[in-house]
Amino acid sequence: MRTFPIFFVLFLVIPIIEIYLLIKVGEEIGALLTIFFVVLTAVIGAGLLRQQGLSTLARFQQNLSSGKIPAQEMVEGILLAVGGALLMTPGFVTDTMGFLCLLPFSRKFIAGNIIKRSSAKFTAGMSGGFGGGMGRAGGFHPHKDDDVYEGEFTEVEKDPRVISPSKKSDFK
Question: Is residue 79 domain-resident?
Fold first, then answer.
């Protein structure tokens, strides 16, 4: 995926659309009411971000303590941060995208799709490479339990009379 078109859309096209919509809405309902709605969505978004952030953090900690990988919660946390930033940005398009990131049903759907797409890419990338190392859970495990051996060792001091291979070159 090329990053230039994405940044082009993010930093040029979306602000132009936002300015156009703010002007059109301002013409219809007035400038003060438009500003009020922009501020209102930011305040509602901040409250929703706090509530959903605490809920996601609680699920993250619960999964972590029960030994599950909290992948869904980690992706949702990123979406919450992005959604909060979008809601703090003035405009109706960014507010819509921000609310999609903050509302539980849409956030879970988006996070699930991100996880599916990234795990498919990870699995495809791993299939040709490491030959082994794949555990029962399907993830990469460089140190499987089968590779751990118990034992004891004793440190033996070197005998100074023995010539090491690297020292042989000193004697010609």
Answer: yes
Extract the tokens encoding 54: 């605490």
Per the structure block, which two tokens stand in for 117?
Answer: 């797409």
Q: What are the backbone dihedrals phi and psi of residue 152, each rounded to the nearest 5 degrees, phi first? A: -125, 155
Who's near 123: CB < 8 A, 6+ residues apart? 138
Residue ranges making up the domain that contains 36: 9-114
**Position 148 in a domain:** no
CA dist., res. 140 & res. 133, Å (int): 6
The predicted-structure confidence for 10-61, as pLDDT tens digits, reads as follows: 888 888 999 999 999 999 999 999 999 999 999 999 999 999 999 999 999 9
* 169 within a domain of the structure (yes/no): no
- Total domains in the chain come to 1
Whether the CB-CB separation of 80 and 49 falls below 8 Å is answered with yes
